[in-house]
Amino acid sequence: MKEFDFYIVPTPIGNLGDITKRAVEVLNSVDIIACEDSRVTQKLLNHFCIKTKCISYHKYNEKERLNYFLDIIKSGKKMALVSDAGTPLICDPGAVLVEELRKNNISVTALPGANAVVTFLSQIPREDETFTFLGFLPKTQTAIEEIFTKYKYADIVFYESPNRLLKTLSILKNIRPEAKVAVGRELTKVFEEIVINNVNSVAEYFEENEIKGEIVAMIYREENSCQCGDIDEKIKQLMSKNFSAKDISVIMSELFGANKNEIYKKVLNLSNNM
User: 3-class SS at 239?
Assistant: First the structure.
């Protein structure tokens, strides 16, 4: 097996049994593990009898650690990066470090493993494979309202904390009262729960039940009101203004939530028939 200087290692999002054999082998073999919270990571390491030294690496010190980690690796040692749970760099620190490592021609690889978004999406019904992942939502109501309005024609997936979920659902009710929502919490754990219903019903459910654990949610896209015939006419109008097929696909996607690839193909077909 090829060896690398730096390993990005996913850790379980709840159930420790979900760690991969290779992840355990890598964490055992490297010289240092960079982690968000050493207390959290140490519990995982103790469970699998891993003795590797941990060094804190989080959003408050990620730039300060760059030269230190570079010196460690250039001295011939190997490192791994983990987050508290799930896959590093997905809403977790690491992007700054990985960019610097690659600039210095240090070999980097990522192991496959646990991820809350994929685990969540694999067990809820969806029309197709397209979705927009937003990470954690902004804190202000105005910013959240703008996002819910902007992406109303897309399935949007995001992380949420237990103490903010009801507020987020309340904002959604005001913007899109008929919206369908899926909420997953405590994924892979004993009390795992997925709730799928209209936003009012989901809000009522969580008002009556205690909210614990990390949360992943999806707001289903709104039905596109722009019918096929309307799309063709709008495309022809844009074509008459000499917009390119690429520009038209972007414009139609932004204004009506249409699929860019489908619009692009439609433009080409209309062009051939004119």
Answer: helix
Strand boundaries in the chain, DSSP class E: 6-8, 32-35, 53-56, 79-81, 108-110, 132-136, 156-160, 180-185, 193-198, 215-219
d(CA 25, CA 13): 19
Are residues 197 and 235 in contact, defined by beta-carbon separation less than 8 angstroms? no
Structure tokens at 119: 């685990």
Right CATH for 6-114 from 3.40.50.1370, 3.90.226.10, 3.40.1010.10, 3.40.640.10:
3.40.1010.10
Q: In what order do the strands lie in the sheet with 193-198?
A: 132-136, 156-160, 215-219, 180-185, 193-198
Round to whole Å and give the CA distance between 97 and 150.
Answer: 32
> Is the CB of residue 58 less than 8 Å from the CB of residue 81?
no
Kindly report the pTM of this predicted structure: 0.80
- pLDDT tens track for 181-235: 999 999 999 999 999 999 999 999 999 998 999 999 999 998 765 555 577 888 8
Burial 185-214 (b: 16+ CB within 10 A, else e): bbbbeeeebeeeeebeebbeebeeeebeeb
Q: Which two tokens stand for residue 39?
A: 């207390």
Type of residue found at 81: L
